[in-house]
Amino acid sequence: xxxxxxxxxxxxxxxxxxxxxxxxxxxxxxxxxxxxxxxxxxxxxxxxxxxxxxxxxxxxxxxxxxxxxxxxxxxxxxxxxxxxxxxxxxxxxxxxxxxxxxxxxxxxxxxxxxxxxxxxxxxxxxxxxxxxxxxxxxxxxxxxxxxxxxxxxxxxxxxxxxxxxxxxxxxxxxxxxxxxxxxxxxxxxxxxxxxxxxxxxxxxxxxxxxxxxxxxxxxxxxxxxxxxxxxxxxxxxxxxxxxxxxxxxxxxxxxxxxxxxxxxxxxxxxxxxxxxxxxxxxxxxxxxxxxxxxxxxxxxxxxxxxxxxxxxxxxxxxxxxxxxxxxxx
Length: 329
Hints:
Layout: H1 2-23, H2 26-29, E1 30-34, E2 38-40, E3 47-53, E4 63-68, E5 72-73, E6 79-83, E7 89-95, E8 100-108, E9 112-121, E10 130-136, E11 139-140, E12 147-153, E13 164-169, E14 173-174, E15 180-184, E16 190-196, E17 201-209, E18 213-222, E19 228-232, E20 236-238, E21 244-252, E22 265-269, E23 278-283, E24 290-296, E25 304-314, E26 317-328
Parallel strand pairs: 2-9, 11-18, 20-26
Antiparallel strand pairs: 1-3, 3-7, 4-6, 4-8, 5-7, 8-9, 10-12, 12-16, 13-15, 13-17, 14-16, 17-18, 19-21, 21-24, 22-25, 23-24, 25-26
Organism: Chitinophaga hostae
Keywords: Signal
InterPro entries: Ig-like_fold (IPR013783), Invasin/intimin_cell_adhesion (IPR008964)
């Protein structure tokens, strides 16, 4: 009788243990991720597999085993066993000498397993994997107009579609308002980024696909000349030997802003067309589009209206703003 009771209790314990196991799923125990998802198949570079074990679960232990069907771990075998750190994190490193996909199986406590794939690619240059092209270059640096760069995956057998692409720039901002922009390739293996800039300059764009292969290209933003110039002068100026006033030219565009650093030429004329006075302390336009100069009448005998012009010349484009100033005795 005692023997049968013992067997009955043992069976209950085994059933209970099996039931306890089903209460917790592998996803509850750990998560797996890769630092890079494409590694050169040169038996030198390592894929880094990160396992995060949930130490708060009753099933979590210190034992963890990595196994692979291709390549070797840092111990030069296809199996690597270690213990989990206090924070539940553990890294394993896998290398391989042949292109292809390796499946890594990670097991905790010899009960709970998860798998992750590592892609090993032929030793090759980024040029044969990814292209980066500026398809909309020489845009005005008006902080509004976008230049365009396009990434193309050249070999879908090596870099599959729907891979993550990270764009970075040394100047300007992407369409998300940041200096970096991350997206995924479309089904045809392309990804597009848009960038704007507030200053004319040469901009370097870098694109990295699959966190492994990078290319760089350059974009040039040209000066954004104004569409309009508003000239601001005081209502009148009393003529005297030292008579002078500040004249301000505001450079504006229909869309965006005019580039800073533009030189504005100021002139003053009598109604007859005769030039009068001189401009000193000329300042190029600032980030607000304002350029200024001091107008000095010089001709103490003159009284009447004068026409002040502010002009920006860019090649064949001439943009002029005008206003009138009354010179009084």
